[in-house]
Prior knowledge:
globular, 83% helix, ABC transporter involved in vitamin B12 uptake, BtuC
Amino acid sequence: MIEILSYQFLQNAIFSVIILGVILPILGIFITIKRITFIADAFSHTAFLGVALSYLFGFNSLLITFLWLFLCIILISWAKKRADFTYDLLIMLVSILGIAGGILIFSLLPLSKNLITGFFFGNILLISKEDLLISLLLFIIFIILFKLYWKELLLTFINEDLAYSENIKVNLINFAFLVILSLSIVISIKMLGVLLVSALMLIPVAISKIISNSFKSLLITSIFWSELFSISGLLISYFLDLPPGPTIAVLGTLILIIVLTMKKFLVK
């Protein structure tokens, strides 16, 4: 095991998944509270076009993908004000564009199928030292902002009208949340793939909601479960030569089923 951990690419993957194992479930908690769980999948699908554009023009994939998602956030806000469309419809439209446009661009490029598959389902070989450093920077920024503004964020997501009455800058908080969410998704794609980023956001929260009775308990247990099955899933995927995204998602789902079953018997 120690010899295996001496590989640089595996170190990058493990440290990245540890960082993401904190950020993603916290974001998942607030997404669940606001009942917008679809946004995790939608944004990750949208990001696929940004990945394709980065390969098309030969630029840094993290930068181009984030800029594309940031542009989508601006476009959604702009379109919402000028058309009789619901917020979820606009998000799903850019999601469709992201997947379809990304596939079209990749089909025109002379790239290996393994690379493209890696972006769909994750590939630990894609994670570089640069990705790890960016993940660490995002983690530091995220933790600072969360500690400073978690109460305002929670109130905004529970009751926007009440948040407005408390003079909380609701629009700014919503916008900042989407930006942080976009950054987290962009960084997670190489590890989990565009199809399964939401797994690490939502499955730990689903497990924790079964056994938690307070927000603090929900927060701690969500991070615990996220770290447990993300690190375990990563190692299993390495040893069995499986894509990490599906492995982590399946392992998390199995744990969810076990916890649900145990609760059912304990209640009886």
